[in-house]
Structures are given as C-alpha cells and as structure tokens.
C-alpha cells in the first residue's frame, strides 16, 4: 500500500518551502535528548546555528517537534522535514550522518525526548565533504557535553487520536564508565495511517472518478545499540547496530469507480460503476552494522576516520486487487478481475569510507577522503491476472513474472580547502569526483520479444563547490554558496513493477531511469543575528518524478480512460525563492517567535507520451507552466508562568498554490496548538494538529489536448497527541562519541 499510493510522497516532496520522500530522504541513528534556553539564531561560515541550550521550551518535546520549530525548517505532512528551498533534509548528529532508513527515522524522532540538545545547525548548501544528493540540505544536531560516569535515561509514552487511535513508547539509556561508553534505544508503536482519495481524469466526452478510503495498519519495533571504547588518548573503536521492523498486515483500499460518458454538446449520455477492493500484507526488516575507527593526529583537531559497514534490507509485500461489478441486486457482488502481486525486495550493501582532516595553525583546514559502496538488489516479482465473465466465472489466467537484479558500485573522492582569512572573511572551496557503475538485469519470460534485458548505466561526475562568508560588522553578515550534485534513483524506483490501484489506474516504476543533476546557488544576508534574507536558485536537469499519462482503451466494446503514473526522467526544472525571516524573543522571554515569509517561482519544462518500460504510447503530457507562490510560517512559544513550568505553543504555516510535476497544487495551511507542563523530572504535553482541518492536498491539471486530472488526498492530519516523559539517572553522563556509518548514503535510497 505504501508503494501503491505514491502520490502523497510526490505531492509533499514538491513543496520547496514546506515539507515530504518520499522521500525518500530523512534518516537517523542515535538521538538521545534535547534542552533549549536563550534562542539565538546566527550565521557561521557555511551554516545557520540555532542555539537552544538551557531553555525549558524543549523539555518534554520530541526531537521532531523541536526541529519543526527551528528557523528554516518545516513539515507540511508531519512525516518529513524540509529546509526552505531544498528537496530533503538529512539528519546528522554531532557532524555525522545518522544511520537509519527514512520511515524508521521519523518514528524515532517522534519518540525521542528533546532534552540534551546544545544547538541545531542548518546547512543549506553542504560542502564537498558531505555525501548528499540533489539539492538536499543537512540538519546537524549538536548534543550537550556531559561530564561524569554513570547511567541515565528517559522513558516516553504517548497516545495519538485522529481518525484512528495510535500509541507508542520508548526507552533510551546511556552508560559511561572510564573508557567504555554504551548507549541504546528501543521503540515500539502501533497506529493506522488513514487516507481518503478523490481521483478524476478524462476528457469532455469521457471521465473516470474514484472515491474512497485507504487504511494502513502499522506495528513498529526498533532501536539501536552502540559500543564505543577509547583505545588510547587519541584513538577510539566503536561498533554500532541499528535495527527496525515494520509489520503492515491487512492494509485496505476501497474505491467506488464511476465511468461517465457525455454527448458532444456536454449533456450526460451514460455511466457505469465498479468497485476496487485491494488488500495487502507487507513487512520489512532493516539491519545494519558499522565498525568505526578514529585517530586524532595532533592537538589542533586533525584526525583520521575510517568506517566499514554492512546493510541488509528485506521487504515482503503481497497484495490482492479485485474489481467488482454490480450483480443482480446491484450490490457489487460479481468479480470481474483479480490481480495478485508478490513483490519482495532484498538489498545488501557493503560500504567503506575514509576521511582525513588536517588543521593548520593559520586557520587553514584541508579535508580529503573517499568512499566505496557495493549494492545488490534482488526483486523477484510474481503477478497473476484472473479474468471473469458476466456471471462471475473464471475464464482466463495470465501469469506475469519479472526477476529484476540490480548491481551498483560507487567510487568517490573529495578534496575541500577551508580558510579563515580574517575575523570578517572566510571561504571554502572543494570538489567531489564520483564514478557510478550499474547493471540491471530483467528476466521476464512472458516478454517474447525481449525475455532477458540488460540495462547498463555508467556515470563519471565532477561536482564542484564554493562558498564564502563575510561579516561586515557586528550587526551585518553576508554569504554566498554554489554546489553541484546528482540524484541517483532509489532502488524501488528502478524495480519495473506495476502497482495496481484500480482497473484503470496504476503506477509504473522504470529500470531505465537515469541520474539527474542539480545546480544550487544561495545568497544570504543576516542582520543582528535575528533577521535574515535568503535568495535561492536551483536548476534540475533530467528530474526524476512521476508523470500522469492518459490514453483511451476499449474493453468489451466500451471506451475507458486509463491513467498511469509513470516514474521517469521528465525534462528540466528551475526553482527560485526569496525569504525574509525573524527569530526573536519578546517580553522578557515570555514570547519566542520564529517567523518566515517568502516568495517562490517555479519554471517547469517537461514533455512525455511513452512509458519507457513497456513502450506503450499515451496522449502527450506537457508541463511547461510557470507559477509564483507565497509561503508563510510562524512558530510561537508563550511562557505562561514565572516558574517556567507552563507553556503554550501556537504554530501556523501557509503554502500558496504552485505548479508541480503533477499539475497545480492548491494552497495548504495548518494551525497547530500545544500546552505543556513541566513538573520535576516529569513533562506532560497535549498537542492538537491541523485545528482548522485545512491541510488537505488538491492537485488539478488541464492539458491543451482536453485531458484533465484531479487528485484530492486527505490524510486526516487533524489529531490530538498526549505524552508523558520521565527523565531518570545521572543527567551528566556523556557518550564517548557519535559515529557516522559507512552505509548511510545508501539507506536513503531503500525506500
């Protein structure tokens, strides 16, 4: 079900200022806590720094809640984080990329109390030393330094109510004794993700409409365990294990489909109806091991860092898709078509990274490193299609097997030079060189023309980076950054599987998708460490997205409109934005405000009429539309008493309508309220999201050919969550280090 309803991910990922990946693209490892104090927002070299230490505002919150209230960060779907003007946000801990897949990370961020964070760094244009793709930005969470040996931890329990009820609980522990540090976390949760859809497509003469609900039950169990041992005063060795299990049985899609025909003068001619009833059982496992060695080579901070990692991802998905037509009692009791799909995916990855940072006395730093990734994905898909006559009797069975194996090797090296010329001027220049070699083999015995195919893709990419930061005086700062990146397709995007939604509506993945290129520029001005202006421009070449293609098909003498969402490269795209922001406290810190307002301009340039996987020709879809939209975000925390124990939160965002790949995305907004009480080591909080129930996605597209397409997706984001957090033990226990995993760059592409 998560793969079938890919629209929600495509929708949210297209909102540049706000938030979605599908993401595809948030990740995490070991996050233990957070605290906030005087809220200071300032520009440092290549990043924005939000100082949240010592403020009681964070107490009792989750890490995810705190990140949503950080300047430049936002979330429109309460599932993914986005940096203003960027595609995705990658989570780092103490300068190291986290080590968990996207779905697992979201759950962990929402279950982790926010009491041990010193500051949050927002890197809008990462340097060459970072392994990021496309226009991704980085959120680096810097933990507070703690001083003594001992044991500490926290427990969190929460209950959420929107359309359905959900609950979760987590336990985090830290132990430090002399040279050994052990940290761990375990999380469990259960919920039902609910959605409703209205889908319409067609022409003035014939149209399809599908209306109904999707319910996706989820049970999660996961966590991490980290052992870190100090070998000498200058060297450390660590082993980290991350694990996550998700079970999603009896996911359901129930849609009523109506086909309507009209005369040339627009008058109604005839209609017929059927129902789509889809049931799916799915579960996945994600396990990874990372071995880390770190050697400090001098007193200035120079060091060598080596990682070796193994990642195993296993997902199993079985679905039963049925089309029912009216029987003698008009009760949709007759089976017309059934398609069963068995879609397993197994991913194995071996990775290694070597990084060396040399610091010199004259404020000059040189960073040199390399990485290697070897990945194999195995997708053995089995489909069976069953056709039935008008009496509901089986008349034909058609098997469709496709065994797709994808092998990929990535080699990368980078060099970054950073220099502080004076107290006012600093600069950074660097480059990455990446070699990608991949081979996809598709074994499809039903394809008589090409039963066995090989798709080879090889890339050599030179990716430069440049930035400078100039402090004009104590009140004014200006900076500029340029970077070029590439975005490789996720492994599930390459698997040539068709996911059925209705008899005439499906999504199609594509093994021929090639990597896209992105060029990012950003100019920033900051005043008094409280007010800022950010100008951003991103150019995307061969953008990877879903394209809605339509065509007319005839079945049993009746004309229908077929709608297919094809995953492919779709032309070029430009995004330009200008944003004004403020981060300030008022009335002796009784009110803390984070306010952003901006304008975004999108230029789309794509044309498609053929499914690259099947060769089927559709009506030409053209998206060469420009749009300009406004974005507003305001996060406010109000202290209600002198003792700093009661807090009220009022958060609001508004995203104006804008043109995306699927069409015109209508405006979105949400008002969220929260009340929190701190009492000794306990925190009680109540959060109400989407109070006005205005965070509902609507997309509309009209083509010059007369084709139209409309999507309305309600994910029932209005809800209420009550949580209790208890902190125990020696709160000064520190971890030895936080360790980056070698396989982190691969994890974002598993889902």
UniProtKB/TrEMBL annotation:
Membrane topology reported for the UniProt record: Multi-pass membrane protein
Signal peptide start-end: 1-18
InterPro entries: Beta-barrel_TonB_sf, OMP_b-brl_3, TonB-dep_rcpt-like
Subcellular location: Cell outer membrane
Superkingdom of the source species: Bacteria
Domain (Outer membrane protein beta-barrel) ranges: 296-726
The protein, known as: TonB-dependent receptor
Pfam families membership: OMP_b-brl_3
Record keywords, A-Z: Cell outer membrane, Membrane, Receptor, Signal, Transmembrane, Transmembrane beta strand, Transport
């Amino acid at each position: 079900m998560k793969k079938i309803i890919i629209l929600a991910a495509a929708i949210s990922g297209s909102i540049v200022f706000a938030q979605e990946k599908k993401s595809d693209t948030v990740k995490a490892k070991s996050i233990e806590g957070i605290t906030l104090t005087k809220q200071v927002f300032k520009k440092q070299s290549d990043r924005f720094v939000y100082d949240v230490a010592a403020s009681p505002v964070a107490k009792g919150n989750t890490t995810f809640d705190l990140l949503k209230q950080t300047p430049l960060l936002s979330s429109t779907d309460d599932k993914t984080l986005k940096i203003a003007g960027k595609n995705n946000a990658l989570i780092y801990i103490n300068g190291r990329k986290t080590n968990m897949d996207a779905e697992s990370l979201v759950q962990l961020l929402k279950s982790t109390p926010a009491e041990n964070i010193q500051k949050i760094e927002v890197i809008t244009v990462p340097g060459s030393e970072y392994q990021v793709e496309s226009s991704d930005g980085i959120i680096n969470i810097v933990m507070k330094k703690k001083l003594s040996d001992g044991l500490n931890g926290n427990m969190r329990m929460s209950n959420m109510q929107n359309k359905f009820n959900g609950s979760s609980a987590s336990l985090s522990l830290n132990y430090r004794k002399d040279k050994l540090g052990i940290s761990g976390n375990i999380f469990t949760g259960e919920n039902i993700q609910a959605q409703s859809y209205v889908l319409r497509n067609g022409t003035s003469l014939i149209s399809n409409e599908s209306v109904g609900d999707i319910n996706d039950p989820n049970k999660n169990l996961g966590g991490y365990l980290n052992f870190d041992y100090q070998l000498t005063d200058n060297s450390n060795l660590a082993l980290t294990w991350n694990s996550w299990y998700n079970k999603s049985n009896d996911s359901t899609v129930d849609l009523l489909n109506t086909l309507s025909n009209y005369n040339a003068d627009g008058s109604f001619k005839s209609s017929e109806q059927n129902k789509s009833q889809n049931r799916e059982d799915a579960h996945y496992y994600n396990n990874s091991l990372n071995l880390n060695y770190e050697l400090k080579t001098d007193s200035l901070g120079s060091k060598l860092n080596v990682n070796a990692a193994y990642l195993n991802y296993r997902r199993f998905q079985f679905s039963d898709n049925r089309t029912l037509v009216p029987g003698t009692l008009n009760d949709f009791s007759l089976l017309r078509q059934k398609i069963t799909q068995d879609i397993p995916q197994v991913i194995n990855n071996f990775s290694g990274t070597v990084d060396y940072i040399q610091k010199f006395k004259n404020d000059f730093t040189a960073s040199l490193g390399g990485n290697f990734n070897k990945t194999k994905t195995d997708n053995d898909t089995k489909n069976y299609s069953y056709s039935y006559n008008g009496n509901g009797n089986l008349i034909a069975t058609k098997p469709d097997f496709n065994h797709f194996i994808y092998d990929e090797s990535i080699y990368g090296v980078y060099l970054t030079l950073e220099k502080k010329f004076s107290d006012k001027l600093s600069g950074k220049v660097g480059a990455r060189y990446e070699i990608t070699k991949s081979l996809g083999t598709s074994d499809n015995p039903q394809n008589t023309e090409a039963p066995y195919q090989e798709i080879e893709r090889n890339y050599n990419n030179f990716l430069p980076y440049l930035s400078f930061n100039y402090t004009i005086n104590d009140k004014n700062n200006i900076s500029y950054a340029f970077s070029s990146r590439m975005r490789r397709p996720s492994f599930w995007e390459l698997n040539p599987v068709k996911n059925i939604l209705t008899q005439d509506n499906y999504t199609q993945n594509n093994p021929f998708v090639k990597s896209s290129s992105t060029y990012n520029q950003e100019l920033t001005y900051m005043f008094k460490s409280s007010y800022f202006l950010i100008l951003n421009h991103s150019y995307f070449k061969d953008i990877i997205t879903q394209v809605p293609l339509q065509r007319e098909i005839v079945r049993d003498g009746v004309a229908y409109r077929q709608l297919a969402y094809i995953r492919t490269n779709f032309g070029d795209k430009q995004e330009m934005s200008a944003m004004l922001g403020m981060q300030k406290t008022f009335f002796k810190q009784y009110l803390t405000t984070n306010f952003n307002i901006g304008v975004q301009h999108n230029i789309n340039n794509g044309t498609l009429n053929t499914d690259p996987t099947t060769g089927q020709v559709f009506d030409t879809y053209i998206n060469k539309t420009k749009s300009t939209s406004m974005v507003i975000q305001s996060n406010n925390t109000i202290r209600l008493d002198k003792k700093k124990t009661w807090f009220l939160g009022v958060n609001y965002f508004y995203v104006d309508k804008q043109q995306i790949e699927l069409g015109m995305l209508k405006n979105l907004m949400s008002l969220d309220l929260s009340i929190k009480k701190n009492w000794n080591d306990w925190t009680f909080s109540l959060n109400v999201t989407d109070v006005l129930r205005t965070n509902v996605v609507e997309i509309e597209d009209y083509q010059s050919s007369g084709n139209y397409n409309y999507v309305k997706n309600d994910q029932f984001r209005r809800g209420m969550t009550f949580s209790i957090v208890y902190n125990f033990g020696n709160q000064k226990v520190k971890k030895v280090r936080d360790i980056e995993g070698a396989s982190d760059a691969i994890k974002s592409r598993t889902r």
